[in-house]
Amino acid sequence: MAWVESIQKAIEYMEKNLTDEITIESIAKQANVSPFHFQRTFAVLTEITVGDYIRRRRLTLAGEELLTTDAKIIDIAYKYGYDTPEAFSKAFRRQHNVTPSEVRKNKGKLQSYNRLIIQVILKGAEPMKYSIVEKDAFQIVGVKREFSRVAEEENVVGIPELWEEVNQNGISDLLFQLNDGIVKGVLGVCGETSEEQKSANVFEYWVATSYSGEVPEGMLSIEIPSSKWAVFEVIGPMPAAMQNTWKRIFSEWFPSTGYEHAGTPEFELYTDEDPNHPELYSEIWIPIK
Length: 289
Hints:
Blueprint: H1 2-16, H2 24-31, H3 35-46, H4 50-68, H5 73-79, H6 85-96, H7 100-104, E1 130-135, E2 138-148, H8 153-168, H9 171-178, E3 186-191, H10 195-199, E4 202-210, E5 220-224, E6 227-235, H11 240-256, E7 266-270, E8 281-288
Antiparallel strand pairs: 1-6, 2-4, 2-5, 3-4, 3-7, 6-8, 7-8
Helix pairs in contact: 1-2, 2-3, 5-6
């Protein structure tokens, strides 16, 4: 339950500071996790980004003020972080489908997003299959991209594009051939691997495989550190089965165990079977402490 309470504490911090400048670092500090892992957990649990949540809540409160106060539209715009009335009006219309001026004239309806409350749902009827594995450090080779932690929407588009690229140019087939069996399959590795990335607000995403030989031309390598891993079984077609398992890990498994994320890169493991097969087997590997 402490894990759930820490996430709720971060949400309360956002709510108290909606009229101030909020950084992801200050938010994650409330939950005592890294900015990367807070954003990852938040997105899995809520299916929206931190940035989207803050924007929706600010525009919800702005709409309430337009209805219940005589404050000038320009003052409300500045209060909720918009530099110009034009930028405020554009964002407001995108959420509410009406302009601030129309709200003042009681035209149209507002679309309200209420503050989040994180709750643990007790299920129990649907077991999660996982194992705890200790593994020494191992090398992976493959291709990588860097994505911004600030522009959170970027990775939603960029990661699927990377997978499409490696599937089309034959890299994924080569990775299956290179695999040395230390961890069987092709991996989607996600995380921060350097202090420089943390300070630059970026993280890495790799499509790679475990391989200890010479790095093939056009690929890169990195060492995955020695760790204790929680390895979760994923059964079903992609991407729905993987997304559902991630959500259950953060909403059910972590809150009910004494484990915490170790803060090092995590990965998804894929086989070369049909990704649409109803019994497709995949795995999620999370470093724990």
